[in-house]
Design brief:
Strand content: 15-25%
CATH superfamily: NagB/RpiA/CoA transferase-like
Structural class: alpha/beta
Number of domains: 1
Number of helices: 6
CATH architecture: 3-Layer(aba) Sandwich
CATH topology: Rossmann fold
Distance between the termini: 25 Å
Shape: globular
Largest sheet: 7 strands, mixed
CATH class: Alpha Beta
Low-confidence stretches: none
Mean pLDDT: 94
Order of helices and strands: HHHEHEEEEEEEEHHEE
Amino acid sequence: MNIRQSIRQKRRELSLAQRNNAQTIIYQKIKNHPAVSQAQHIAIFLSFDGEVDTKPIIEYLWQQNKSVYLPVPVADHQLLFLNYSPKTPLIKNKFGILQPAIDETSSITIEQLDIVFTPLVAFDERGYRMGMGGGYYDRALANYQKQQILPIGLAFACQKVAKLDNQPWDIKLPEIIYA
């Protein structure tokens, strides 16, 4: 079993109590995060395959009058960020993940985002992340420092590994919130 399969399996095997305890800590860290309180445009993913449940985070962001955007995969392994509100209808994409239907009028450029919460399969102490293998986030965040975007990974502690074999194009996250 490779690292991606192994960590996904570990994540799925977390008990409900372990998952809830970790998520409570993660939610508190987000609520107390100075960058989150200052941000207006925040991209976040809808949870899939045992990832940290982002629904309570999204609801909190809406309560704080933040504009929330969901990543939508499009051609050439690019991400489009579409506005997401409680009334946004969702459809399943080719990966089986819920997303808004593509509507260019509700999209925002990545440069307009303040924070991008990123999913990940595994991460290491240096901030490197392993995603699902499509390179969508690495492409989207390639210039995040120049664009003054804060990418933040969300994970469970069981997803941390000693060291990932990163490639030159892999994006090192400045912050990963986990418990």
